[in-house]
Structure formats: structure tokens, C-alpha cells
């Protein structure tokens, strides 16, 4: 097996608001698709947005739920300045600040925001580790 995550699908309450946040606010490149789903091409994977009720039905579980979801998504950048810029862009696009970017115990620099549906994103610079385009 070749380990990878090909796509992450987020359940969203308001497709138009979420598409605006990711496409216009964060500048992710949107692919053409059915209006009931949105796909964004990332570096080596896709981000999908799908209606909360419809995704829960597809999985076969109730759509009700709140609180900490038990996972976060991370966007790693090459510098603290890039982290600050990405956090500012997300907040300008309508994200909610969860934890301001700051130096952290593991030697890096990171902060958290939540998207319009409360999905948690960490924006980080890790001077000890890099996953990104230069990996090929």
C-alpha cells in the first residue's frame, strides 16, 4: 500500500457560504462539479465540500452533533510571516479565531481558526519538518 490521503470531505451547512469562504476567501482553486458538491484541487489531494445532511445520509449516521469533532486540518507554511498572513486572510474571509498564532512548545509557530462550519484548521510553521511542493 502507498499511504496517502486523496481527499478530505467536509460536511457543510450552507454550501454557498462555504464555497465562498474556500474559493474567494482562501483562494483555493475550485474544480467544475455538480452544484451539490464542491471540489478544490490541493497540492497532492482534494478538498471536498458536501451538504451536512447528505454526507451523514451517505455514511449512514445521524447528522446531529456538536462540540469538538476530534480532528483538525493543518496547513504548514515555510515561515512565521506566512502563518500570520494566512491567519489574517482566513479571518478576513470570515473564519473565527480559535487560537492566535504564537510560538509553541514543540519549537514551531502555529494558530487555529475555524471555518464557517466550525472545522478547525491549524496554520503552522514547523522548522523541524516540511511537507509540501519541494517533496516532489
UniProtKB/TrEMBL annotation:
Residues 4-126 form the VOC domain. Gene3D superfamilies: 2,3-Dihydroxybiphenyl 1,2-Dioxygenase, domain 1. It comes from Solimonas fluminis. Transmembrane segments: none annotated. It comes from the Bacteria. Pfam families: Glyoxalase (PF00903). SUPFAM superfamilies: Glyoxalase/Bleomycin resistance protein/Dihydroxybiphenyl dioxygenase. This is Glyoxalase. CDD domains: VOC_like.
Amino acid at each position: 500500500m502507498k499511504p496517502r490521503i486523496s481527499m478530505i470531505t467536509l460536511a457543510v451547512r450552507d454550501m454557498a457560504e462555504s464555497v465562498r469562504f474556500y474559493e474567494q476567501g482562501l483562494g483555493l482553486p475550485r474544480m467544475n462539479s455538480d452544484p451539490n458538491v464542491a471540489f478544490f484541487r490541493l497540492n497532492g489531494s482534494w478538498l471536498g465540500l458536501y451538504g451536512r445532511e447528505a454526507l451523514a445520509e451517505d455514511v449512514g449516521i445521524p447528522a446531529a452533533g456538536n462540540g469538538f469533532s476530534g480532528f483538525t486540518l493543518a496547513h504548514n507554511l515555510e515561515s512565521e510571516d506566512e502563518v500570520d498572513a494566512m491567519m489574517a486572510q482566513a479571518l478576513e474571509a470570515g473564519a473565527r479565531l480559535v487560537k492566535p498564532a504564537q510560538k509553541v512548545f514543540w519549537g514551531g509557530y502555529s494558530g487555529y481558526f475555524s471555518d464557517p462550519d466550525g472545522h478547525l484548521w491549524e496554520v503552522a510553521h514547523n522548522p523541524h519538518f516540511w511537507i509540501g511542493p519541494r517533496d516532489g
